[in-house]
Design brief:
This protein has 18 helices and 15 strands. By secondary structure, the protein is an alpha/beta fold. The strands form 2 sheets. Strands 8-9-10-7-11-12-14-15 form an 8-stranded mixed sheet. Belongs to the saccharopine dehydrogenase family.
């Protein structure tokens, strides 16, 4: 159990900032700042830029002041991940720290520790499951005791998957049924990856110690110790067919991240989705494309597993920092959600289709907006979250920390969550 939340709320109210954006000079960090400048003018949100390089942070401040002139005097906080005292001084000034700079295993470990020490909520956009597992082992108990929310994977990995599963399981419960499974089908989508994103994925999949890589192969590797295990098996890397939608599928590269986050959400919420709940995801594709895609991923994983060649692979990663504003605006993404109820005697399982989608580039524009809304949810809706029955402290997930409150914020930001059942649509 956590310490008394009223005391923490009082301490939070004395901090000068609701949000501090760490890594504000990076591509995603700048986008977070632009969202704040453009969409939250005059809202009374107190925030600051943070990082190591003052001149680069001043340049970002100059850029965003073109959107909102009042930001010309926006505060800048300096810190260094190698200087514990500087991080303590920085994070103790804010209710929530948003971390945007990866690879997180290399650059964010001291930030998480500082936030837990100082009672500061933390959100990031990592997809590095071995590192998330270590943060759970090192910080969950203390963060839970202090009522500090450490929320990893608040970007495209894994917000649509995590909140989508939460949304569908909640709908099943409202129908009076127990949810047996949710399958996420990714696509169609249009977006890009930068070299930095690919480097983070490469490191998480291939450069972590063998012991850690073996541990995260377990579908339930992020679940609390001794919690009930469901029936999910190893990730599926072949060609599949989803009968309710009539779609062929191929492997989705981020399934090892998203599936484990969804399962941790269910476990942290007391198996609210169901004790036997199963979750999987794949990309929808025509049969030939699915075959070729599965083969391409097989050979890519085989080649990337040759450790002596890792230096060469890193040099070959693209150096492009991210997509242009035009490409971000032309991006889009769709997740089709297939939920199935548990079998009941004499009654066929109900199958419910849902959808989560957005009209911007998922890897950058949407990722930055997801992260921002998660941070604002923690900072501005404390009392609402306390009454929600969700988890208030620990190393959490977007669904277990914020659930329907974050869904509501994302809907207002333009993300669609909808359920289609018996050809009727419910918003």
């Amino acid at each position: 159990m956590m310490d008394g939340s009223p005391a923490k709320n009082q301490a939070d109210s004395l901090r000068p900032f609701h949000i501090v954006v760490w890594g504000a000079t990076g591509f995603v960090g700048k986008l977070v700042c632009e969202h704040l400048a453009r969409d939250y003018q005059g809202e009374g949100i107190q925030w600051a830029l943070a990082g190591r390089n003052k001149s680069k942070l001043e340049a970002v401040r100059e850029e965003i002041s073109a959107i909102d002139p009042s930001l010309k005097t926006l505060d800048i906080l300096l810190g260094d991940i190698k200087d514990e005292a500087s991080l303590d001084a920085l994070v103790s000034q804010t209710q929530v720290l948003l971390a945007t700079a990866g690879p997180f295993a290399r650059l964010a470990t001291p930030l998480v520790a500082a936030c837990v020490r100082n009672g500061t909520h933390y959100c990031d956009i990592t997809g590095e499951i071995p590192w998330v597992r270590r943060m759970i082992q090192e910080h969950h108990e203390e963060a839970e005791r202090k009522g500090v929310a450490v929320v990893h994977c608040c970007g495209y990995d894994s917000v649509p998957s995590d909140l989508g599963a939460f949304y569908m399981a909640t709908h099943m419960k409202q129908m009076g049924k127990k949810c047996a499974s949710v399958t996420t089908l990714v696509g169609p989508a249009k977006g890009t990856f930068s070299g930095g994103t690919l480097a983070s994925l490469f490191g998480a999949f291939f450069e972590e110690p063998a012991e850690d890589r073996k541990a995260v192969a377990d579908p339930y590797c992020l679940d609390p110790p001794n919690s009930r295990r469901g029936h999910d098996k190893a990730d599926f890397w072949g060609v599949g067919y989803n009968r309710p939608t009539g779609k062929f599928t191929m492997p989705f590269l981020m399934q090892p991240v998203n599936t484990r986050i969804v399962r941790r959400s269910n476990a942290l919420l007391g198996h609210a989705y169901g004790e036997e709940f199963r979750y999987s995801e794949a990309m929808e594709a025509p049969f030939v494309v699915a075959m070729l895609g599965a083969l391409a991923l097989f050979w890519a994983f085989l080649l990337f597993s040759i450790r002596p060649l890792h230096g060469l692979y890193r040099r070959l990663l693209p150096k492009v920092p991210g997509p242009s504003k035009e490409l971000q605006r032309k991006g889009y993404w769709t997740h089709t959600l297939v939920a199935e109820s548990q079998e009941e005697e004499g009654v066929a399982p109900a199958v419910v289709l849902g959808r989560v989608c957005g009209q911007r580039d998922p890897g950058y524009w949407e990722t930055s907006r997801f992260l921002l809304e998660a941070g604002l949810c923690l900072a501005l809706q404390k009392q609402d979250l306390e009454k929600s029955g969700l988890r208030r402290g620990g190393v959490l997930t977007p669904a277990s920390a914020m659930g329907s409150r974050l869904i509501a914020r994302l809907k207002r930001a333009g993300v669609t969550f909808e359920v289609q059942h018996n050809n009727s649509r419910e918003e």
